[in-house]
Design a protein that fits this description.
mainly beta, 4 helices, 24 strands, 39% strand, disordered N terminus, DUF4221 domain-containing protein, DUF4221
Amino acid sequence: MDAFLYHVIQDYNRMRKFTFCLFSFFLLACQDKGSNNTLQGITFDQLEIPLLLDFNPDRVRSQYYESDSGEFLVVLNKTRFSLGFFSIEERRLVKSIPLTKEGPNGIGLDNGFLIISEDSILVATIPPKIRLLNSEGKLLRSYPVENKSNDVNYISSTNEVPFLYSDKTFFGIQPFIDNFFEITEKEATSIDMIFSVDFSKADPKADWLPIKRPSGFWDEGKKDENLSWTERGDSIIIAPYTDHGIWIISKKQKKLLQVIECKSSFINEFHLLDKNELGGDKGIIQSLERDRYEIIMYDKYRDVFYRMFFPRVEIEKFDFTARQLFANRPLVGVMVMDKEFNLIGEHLFQPHYVQPWNYFVGKKGLYVSTNNPNRDDFDENFLRYDIIRFEGLKYED
């Protein structure tokens, strides 16, 4: 009887997944046709991994990690402070690295991580330090991040601004500005933003690169200084949330090379900030009623870039409060661009289809989390991703 029930359940799960994939295909095919650059995306497959009761995932950091051992999704567990390695092939948790806040291996308040190798992990912490850990969670080194000309108030390695690492050199960014409402654009463009650490040196230290914001970014008024970044070869690519331009920076030359206009047809009006309008729901509503960009990612398997975006929200059309919509923006889209940032096309997901800030690139395609709390089928007991493929791109299988 047990074997019989097992096969019944397995058949049911396969049918459920097939039905959902078919539903997703039509859902995506029926997207908003408001853009002449509409790009069809289909759900190629789904990734669903059950979670243990004591695993509470941090959605703002999900690192895809590929090694000789296979493909993994690494997620921070906020309940049992640790890094969980989930096998994408086996669809289960296969390894955990314990973390501690205090004691000889204590890292304090964490703010994201980067898996360099199976025995080397970088963790961003507050106050700003870079912690180097091994595969057992042992603290090997700490590197303070300081800047004599500017107070360093924030470093992170999240999905938005992950640490960048290649050839034993690590790059981090400090995107925020002190005294935001008082500072002038001229003063803001005098601040170094990016630091690097060369681990090939005997005594590695954080060195600040002479790279600053381009002038003119506040011509329309003061806008959010949030941004996202990624890398391709020698280039660091910075994508501000409230600007169409993308900044191209050379690692070797340590300078800003150019700013490329990469506008989405869905993004037309940014939220201008006014300190007199902050507080309560007013600022939240104003933000929802304006457009903004979000995370940028590089797909090394297809040699393309994905720039996520949030179109404006007509709040009255949704049965949610402004705060619920702000916590999980209902409308999410993606620009697909080639290696030279020419637009291939744009795809707008159906409302509440994806969970914002929770995406990653893998061999099979673009993984977008479908565990949006505003969906009827939300289930906190699973990690759930749809693997999206776009027309015109080449895939191995």
